[in-house]
Amino acid sequence: MSDCCCSTGSKRPSCCCSDSCGADERARSVSTTLTLRDRFGGFKVRWGVNRMNYTVDPGLYAVGNPAAESPVLVTANYKLTFDTVRSNLAGIDCWLLALDTKGVNVWCAAGKGTFGTDEVVNRIEQVGLAKVVAHRELILPQLCASGVNALEVKRRSEFAVTFGPIRAADIKEFINSGFTATPEMRTARFTFADRLVLTPVEFASAAKASAPVLALLFLLNLVAARQFGSKDFIAYLGALLVGTVVTPALLPWIPGRAFSWKGWLLGFIWTALISWGFGWLSPSARMIGVGYLLLLPSVSAYFAMNFTGSSTYTSFSGVIKEMKLTIPAIAASAVAGAVLILIKTFARG
Amino acid sequence: MTAHKHLNNVATLELDTEKCVGCGICATVCPHGVFVIESGKARVTDKNRCMECGACALNCPAEAVTVEKGVGCASAVIRGWLTGSEPSCDCSGGECC
To answer: What percent of chain B has pLDDT over 90?
Structure first.
C-alpha cells in the first residue's frame, strides 16, 4: 500500500501495517504458517459458514524477503485460496498479488470473469507492480486461464504471463524446476480426499433446504392419522447423506455416468434396506414402503446431481443433457411417492 | 488414479487445424489434457474429456479453437431457469462455488 504509514518511520499507529515494515512499503508481508484462527476459519467455510464473505484485501503481499528480481504469483482473494497458496510457499521469497475476485476461488472466479484479463491488468496498475519488481513476468494459476487471456495481459500491461501449476502444493517444485510444470501438475484431479472435503458444505446446504419440509411434516402431524416419527426422519436423513456425502465420496466406483443416476442407485439401495428394517415392506405398511421407494431415491438423485457443480470434469452440455433426462423422471417419481405417503398419513383405520 | 468421465458425445469443442499455429497454449491451459501438439499442430486426443471451460479458446492466438463455454453445474442451471437468466456461477444473493 503506497499510503502505508510505516514508511514515515518512527511513529507507527497500531491501526495499520503492523507487520509490513520489513518488506517493500507497497506490500504487506504475510506468513507461510497458518494460525489456529486461519484453520478454524477454513473449517467453518467448508461447512458453509460465512463462506461468501471470507476474503483478504486485494493487493500485493510479500512472502519471505522478496527483492526486485523475485517472482510474482497471482491468486484470488478468497481467504481459503489465499491461505492454501501462502502455506505452500515456505522458504520461497516472492510477491503474492491477490486479485479482487469477490471472495471466490480461482476457477469459479475465472468462469464468471472476475479473475479475468481486466482485473489482472488493473491490479498490476493499482499496486504499481512495475515499480516494485525489475522484471516483467507474472505467474498465474493455470485454472484462471478460462478468464485470463495471457497475450492480452502482455499487450496491455507489458507483463508476460506464465501459467503455473493447478495445485498450490506444486508451486515450489514448479519454481525450483525453472518454471516448468509436468503434465500431472497441469491435470485437474478429483481424488477421494478432494471430493470428501467438499461434502460438508453439500450436506449443510441440503439440510438447510430441508428445514421447511420438516416444519411442514411437524404441522401435518397435528392432524395426521399416521404420524411422522424418528423412523421417517432417519430414512430421509439417510437419503440426504447418500446424495450429498456417500455418492460424491464413492463417485468413480458407482456404475454409470450421470451423477443423478449414481445418487438414485445408492438412494434406492438405502431406502430398500431401511424399509425392510423398519417393516415398511409388510402388507399393512406397504404403501409407506413403496411411497418412500419412489420418493427418497429421487431426493438422493437430486442432491447428487447438484454435485456436478463441485466436480472438476462436467461440461455445461453434459449437465444439461443429464438434467433433461433426469428432472422429469425424479419429479414424477417423487410426487407419486409423496402422494402415497400422504394417503397413508390421512387414511383412518 | 480412476479417470472420471461424464456423458459422451456432448462437448461443443472444435479445432480448426488449418488455422492452428502450433503454439501449444491450448495444451498448457487445458485441465484435462485434451490437446497434444504433434508435428507443429494441435490435435484433440479425447473430446469427451472436454468440460467446456473455454480456457483454450480464450487463449488461442489464431482463433483456431471454439467451444461454447459454460458452467457444468446443475444448481447454476436451475437458478438460471428460475430467474430466466443465463446459467452462471454468479452467486450474488445465494450460496455457490
So the answer is: 65
The distance of Cα A98 from the centroid of its chain, to the nearest Å, equals 18
- Give the distance from residue B35's alpha carbon to the nearest chain A alpha carbon, in angstroms: 11
- Taking a contact as any Cβ pair under 8 Å apart, which residues of chain B between 42 and 81 contact chain A? 49-55, 58-59, 61, 68-78
- Contact A315/B91, CB-based, under 8 Å? no
Which domains are assigned to chain B? 14-83 (3.30.70.20)
State how far the Cα of A316 lies from the Cα of A255, in Å rounded to an integer. 22
Say if the Cβ atoms of B96 and A309 lie within 8 Å: yes
- Enter the CATH code of domain A5-176: 3.40.50.11600
From B5, B7, B29, residue closest to A322, measured CB to CB: B7
Cα Dmax for chain B: 49
Q: List all residues 6 or more positions away from A252 whose beta carbon is below 8 Å from its beta carbon.
A: B2, B3, B4
pTM above 0.80, yes or no: yes
At A141, give phi and psi (nearest 5°): -65, 140
CB distance A310–B2 less than 8 Å? no
Query: Mutate which of A146, A151, A253 to disrupt the B interface (most B C-beta within 10 Å)?
Result: A146
Q: Which helix (H) or strand (E) holds B35?
A: strand B35-38
Q: What is the pLDDT of residues A108-157, one digit of tens each?
A: 999 989 999 999 999 999 999 999 999 999 999 999 999 999 999 999 99
Q: What is the chain A residue with the closest CA to B7?
A: A318
DSSP per position, A101-159: -TT--HHHHHHHTSSSHHHHHHHHHHTTHHHH-SS-EEEEEGGGGGT--HHHHHHHHSP
Cβ B59–A151 below 8 Å, yes or no? Answer: yes
Complex confidence, ipTM: 0.90
Residues of chain A with CATH 3.40.50.11600: 5-176
- Mean pLDDT over each residue of chain A, to the nearest integer: 91
Measured CA to CA, the distance from residue A311 to residue A299 in angstroms comes to 19
DSSP class of A7: G
